[in-house]
Amino acid sequence: MRRNPRELSGLWRKTSRRALLLGGAQVAFAGVLGWRMVNLQVEQADQFRLLAEENRINIRLIPPARGELYDRNGKVIAQNVPSYRIVMVPEDVGDVDAVIQRLQLLVRIDPEDLERGLEEMRRSPPFLPITLAEQVSWEAVSRVSVNAPALPGVTAEVGLTRVYPRGPDFAHVAGYVGPVSDYDLNQLQDPDPLLRIPRFQIGKVGLEAKREDLLRGKAGAKRVEVNATGRVMRELDRTEGRPGADVQLTVDADLQSYVQARLGSESASAIVMDCETGDLLAIASSPIFDPNTFVRGISVADYRALTEDPYRPLASKSVQGIYPPGSTFKMITAMAALENGLITADETVYCPGHMDLSGRRFHCWRRGGHGNVDLQNALKQSCDVYFYDIAQRVGMDKISVMAKKFGLGVKHDVPMSAVAKGLAPDRAWKQRVRGEDWLVGDTANAAIGQGFVLASPLQLSVMTARLATGRSVSPRLIKSIDGIEEPRQNGEPLDVDENHLRMVRRGMYAVSNDRRGTAYGSRVIADEYRLAGKTGTSQVRNITETERRSGVVRNEDLPWERRDHALFVNYAPADAPKIAVSVVVEHGGGGSTAAAPIARDITLQALFGDTPPLSAYPAKDRSRIEAQQDRLRREQEDRDRQERDRA
Amino acid sequence: MSYLEYSVNSVPSGFRKILFLNWPLILLLFSVAGVGFLMLYSVAGGSFSVWAEPQAKRFAMGLMIMLLAAMIPIWFWRNISFVAYGLSLTLLLGVEFFGTVGMGAQRWIDLGFMRLQPSELTKITSVMLLAAYYDWLPAKRVSNPIWILFPLLIILIPTFLVLRQPDLGTALLLMVGGGGMLFLAGVHWAYFAGVTAIGASTIFTVFKSRGTEWQLLADYQYRRIDTFLDPSSDPLGAGYHITQSKIALGSGGWTGRGFMQGTQSRLNFLPEKHTDFIFTTLAEEFGFVGAFSLLSLYVLIIVFCVASAIATRDRFSSLVTLGIALTFFLYFAVNMSMVMGLAPVVGVPLPMVSYGGSAMLVLMAAFGIVQSAHVHRPR
């Protein structure tokens, strides 16, 4: 069929027109594409460049080494030691099950850890290392290294673990560290990115927690280039962090160990404080636990055993335990009366064994009474009636002021957990807290350290140090930070008459050195180490009238938790005070029998700097003391051996 | 029988045809393919053998096919266009039954030496058949509704088969390419206005139907549209590809980050970086200058094809050249729009640059036909 050329040329013109139209539209669309290129690549280039960098660059933290803890002589209390963990990079392993099976022949892997590791492996990309076992011994690491060809993708990594080489001795002072928890994160409100590292170790209790700011240090960072799946391609640069500060404590580690050992398994606590500087030389509380078990991760059973123990090993009794101070409070009552000019040293009070106040009868601990007693005798024999009497004259508010002056009812700034404030009550306090009027009987109870008065062993040692020096000594736990000495806490002179202090000190000297003193049984006969102290026995129950009539039940016949607390405070040497000591034995019975002997041993140990010579003790005690010293020495040797074996 | 066969004497013969090839077009194809080799070398991390070498071999093979096709007179191609169309439909049906599932859709037939995507072939054969149809159809019938039914069938049968794979992108390309052929052939304006109106109302209905009982598209298709409209709504999920692609493009800036220095592609933030998203690597490493140069090369190819089409008096030659140019345009326009966030993510490669056999060979064969039309045009 031959086409009509006219028709054909008409079609050709039409097609050409439309071809130009469509071609033009195509070029126009290409123009839109070009415009979009300008828009993305020129106008928004900076913004997209930034996004590309954010994609590519990841910041990885380098955890700093935690600051270490030393005692006053430079002995290590807490340190970081290299620890090994076995890690596996799944993508290099190949047959995971077979390799794990082989690995289990070489290293003990906790089934729980293994399960967690495998779970992690399923969730994360295959190039991220999975931790299979932590805190692995060097021998196990060697075994793994030797067998490396059979264990593709398995390597040992080195990290730092917190170790407390003195075991339980510093459990409450240093505390311990543990992996950061969600609770910690909420509690701390700390923006430090280190806390976002899983299982990062932070201080949980004690100094470790209180001075976390010093010990943690500052994170370093490295910038790494990562690909889309997060694999690190190379390190771009790094900024070094700052390691945590090394902290030196005022505590003497050897003395601390001795005091802990001397307290033994009693539910007791003791403080040794330098009278002059306020340095805390020993802060002991027993029974105790090993903080290393917390770092490693304590088992549920062990933890329950600690929490359910009636002796409360987890409580730091020396700073957080508060007790009625009992007769150890009598120096405060005496000072209040003396300072207010209400008594003189010679003035006597007649003690018939009891005193009647607003219809209630208040008993002296000695049923038969002490007869006529002056201040020195009242302290020496701990006559309760004398203090009932003078307290009535002074009034509670002035006693409370005096108590606070001597550091009772005041919170001392010691970087340990749950430092107790105690209580030095006054009239306003009772009205405010209990909504009741202060009664005459309340003053009588408070005068002998019962009733509302509460004090911690730390506060009692501060009180004793202040009585001994006449200065407002405050406790100091940190000696230096990174070698820079912290200010001493020897304090301003207390605004009290030196003569009045001397009268009270004479009474305290008599307690420990006079034949009729309550702590004469725990005296020291070496002149240069003589003690001046005060016993205290504080009731934790009310003795009823019927019980009094039928004869008070003896402590030994009571169940443990209803027995009296035994307390003793002292300073020594009596003529030139160097240290102040307080001892509290919970439900220990009498202060003179349960607390004073401990305080004497601790004092001698502290003053002598080692096991004291037997000649310091009264002759009849020597054989018993020698046996005790031998026992403690053997125990110490056992502990040292165990420590060496572990290291 | 067309005008052409009476002018056979004016057509060059034998090896003299080589002199009459559209050499600028060949040069442009070489340049574009060269850009492709360079980028494939780069995304392979500096390795020639991974993608660039097989791609170069395919290009060489495509070049031979093109020259062979160029030597064969254009009327031969017109005469076999019906057979070629039938063959490609058969292959498309073959995919339905014997195809390999890839990327969630049936698209390939394994021929042993290469994996053929019949849908690519169909784009060209339907253009050929439409060109032949309008070459045959008398001018006065072009806009006659009955005579429009046949070209509609030619377009819709493969579209339907491709949609079943499912491959929405190729289906749309087939429809737009076919529609373009109708437009070029001279079908009356009113038809296009009508189709546009119907299309607009369909889109409206599709969106209205969402979430109702008579929902027209599958949920994943709606999600793709959502992602396209607002990629930042789901930056780590479905919007990830578009977002990362835009970051790569944008971070290139004026002159790019340097050859083999593109962090987005080197660190695998880009998906399908050697196929559909290869343009992003080019734009990241060579910046606006590189990206715009490639766009210019593409536009020049279109311009040369249109010029060649207008230069010939033969209706089949002209229509087939324009149709192939349009198909080529749709490839790069849709691909670039997609990676620049102007269109939803549909699987369309960047022509002559993306790694892949079917598209490269089919396009080279198609340009062979364009060359044949150019060589055998009446003078």
Summarize the structure.
The complex is a heterodimer of chains A (647) and B (379). By secondary structure, chain A is of the alpha+beta class.
General description of the model:
The complex is a heterodimer of chains A (647) and B (379). By secondary structure, chain A is of the alpha+beta class. Chain A is 41% helix and 19% strand. In chain A, α10 packs antiparallel against α23 (591-608). Chain A is elongated, with a radius of gyration of 37 Å. The model of chain A has no long low-confidence stretch (mean pLDDT 89). With 379 residues, chain B is mainly α. Chain B has one domain. Helix content of chain B is 66%, strand content 3%. Chain B contains 13 helices and three strands. At the A-B interface, α1 and α2 of A face α6, α9, α10, α11 and α12 of B.
Helix content of chain A: 40-55%
Strand content of chain A: 15-25%
Overall geometry of chain A: elongated
Share in β-strands of chain B: under 5%
Overall tally of structural domains of chain B: 1
Q: Given the structure, what is the number of helices of chain A? A: 24
Arithmetic mean pLDDT of chain A: 89
Count of DSSP E strands of chain A?
Answer: 21
The major pleated sheet of chain B works out as: 3 strands, antiparallel
The interface involving the most residues is between:
A-B, 46 and 54 residues
Radius of gyration of chain B: 21 Å
Helix content of chain B: 55-70%
How do the strands of the widest beta sheet of chain B line up side by side? 1-2-3
Count of helical regions of chain B: 13
Low-confidence stretches of chain A: none
Biggest sheet architecture of chain A: 7 strands, mixed
* Strand elements of chain B, count: 3
Give me the secondary-structure category of chain B: mainly alpha
Element-by-element helix/strand order of chain B:
HHHEEEHHHHHHHHHH
Going by CATH, the homologous superfamily of the largest domain in chain A would be DD-peptidase/beta-lactamase superfamily
